[in-house]
């Protein structure tokens, strides 16, 4: 019923504009060459107003030289046509008053001197602007065969751990898809990013201090993943295929058909992965009452073969030069079969309490996500003056079936079996209304409304095998139901003004959040309603054409997710359980950043410093539930102070060697006195990212990526350093329509995650590694019916 209301509203909103368009006239005609008398394709045709010469429409001629402007308002106009190698031509002024008008143009080719143009250039890998850094994925060889997670490792300021969790400047980050919140980027964001094919991504935007028009979630900022959508005329497409070691493979295709008024697009990709993970967990635990110590060692080997499919289909339709709308749908399916074997060894002060057994887990998971988006955009008479309505809906169910068996060597008891069935659903609704108005050449106003309505339902059913009844019976301790509702409504405005050398962007966003955690099992409801204001400020000052200063500020928030609030445990490992905290407060972050940009002769430097003050920062606290079970939950720190500096060093030597080196140093001081830790802790950590490519001629390129992260601080201990290096090579074939490439990730098998935890009653060391050295051999081919003229040969480099 809600979908019907939304559709009716959109139809009602669009109807007056369509009726208005039907009352307007049309202008059509052809463009031909003077000497050959032949029609000319791909000629730029511009409709201009006689009064102010402003552009009222833009078209490109068809294969027969034709063009059409529909729904042209009444008025006086002229048409201008231009094409490389021909003299520009324009028509006399004519009138439109509701009827169809014919205007034919002839381009003079008698004075043509242009025979061939060779453009050899490579789009910059990294582009810096006033409020974000843009990483162009098509320049990354790893993007041909790898996943989004692997490409993110190469993006400046971004860190990806061995589990695929993404952070920005060592802090939590919000990940958007095409600028919008996606349910896929919730609980299982790491898994989805490891399955999302990188060749479906056009660019990745890193926004450390987003402006007020963006959702203010994420301690470190926002990462916006922009997916490809071809807009070239005609039929175009790309096909890719990759095979890897351990029976890995992935393949995909994307198609686009653009007639000018109608743009149809679609894509489909599959990926079969293989992951083997080993984890060693050693701990020394002392009973707080008896002060007797016990040692625990868990050795886990987890084997997983996830298979995923991603499909996208949609269209954009131009009603007239000022009005267009579009509809698109996405489907994601991930099936996973997982086998875990954990060897558990317990040595206590009393030999009678020693344990030695294997815990075997067989897991079947299926995760789906179906989403749809509709937009309508109306442009006013002034260029770039527009309003856009967009509605996004998504439904994401997930099923997880776990079968557990404990096989004992000590004590000598019969095997034990238990199982859990987890049903989770996420419903997401988002409505945005965005308005943009360039008040002048130097001033721009943006305003809008953003409403997000989310519902998460987590239903856990636990059963244990009863040897007497010879059947599974419900386990009340492992059965629970939790529903989390989050409605956030916001209005925002930004004001941008350019002066002679300075640009200012000031913004303000007000949000009302209505959050309710429902513990269905216990009948408890925990509401949390609040209104907060988030100001932003961005300044840039151009010292010279190649030198620029930047200063920006934003107030941000990090809201807890459903899993972080759910107080019920999953019990995958009965001796190491993780639960949520329904009383967890959102983080509040004040962030200031200053930067400088210098570039000359293919070299650019972007040093920056930043300071963040975080109240209520989330942190994981592990405590003993009893003498054999540890429980981990999120808690709020009193505050967290972080000061950092980084520099992006870019080198481009004649498009042969392209290098980006990004070192980052980070000082962190945390106050956990509210959690019973008496001393404030501080540390200095650093990381470095290197992304380098070298071209061997115009057809072959080599690439190297590496990342190093030093030790990082936690209230109870630290994470140890980690390092990873990836290599890739690409060879273009078939007149640069195809390419063959090979990639190797984690060349030296150094990727790992180690953590130390120390407390008065607990000492723990956890180390995790995986089969992250992955080989891929792949091929991609791009095709299309867009034809280039014989006298024009464009070479975009390789």
From TrEMBL:
Ranges for domain TonB-dependent receptor plug: 134-222
Superkingdom to which the source organism belongs: Bacteria
Cited PANTHER family: HEMOGLOBIN AND HEMOGLOBIN-HAPTOGLOBIN-BINDING PROTEIN 1-RELATED, TONB-DEPENDENT OUTER MEMBRANE RECEPTOR
One Gene Ontology biological process: siderophore transmembrane transport
Species whose genome carries this gene: Pedobacter cryoconitis
Record's signal peptide: 1-21
Main subcellular location: membrane
Ranges of residues in domain Outer membrane protein beta-barrel: 378-781
Protein name: Outer membrane receptor protein involved in Fe transport
Cellular component, GO annotation: cell outer membrane
Pfam families per UniProt: CarboxypepD_reg, OMP_b-brl_3, Plug
Keywords linked to the UniProt accession: Cell outer membrane, Membrane, Receptor, Signal, Transmembrane, Transmembrane beta strand, Transport
Protein's membrane topology: Multi-pass membrane protein
GO MF annotations, alphabetized: siderophore uptake transmembrane transporter activity
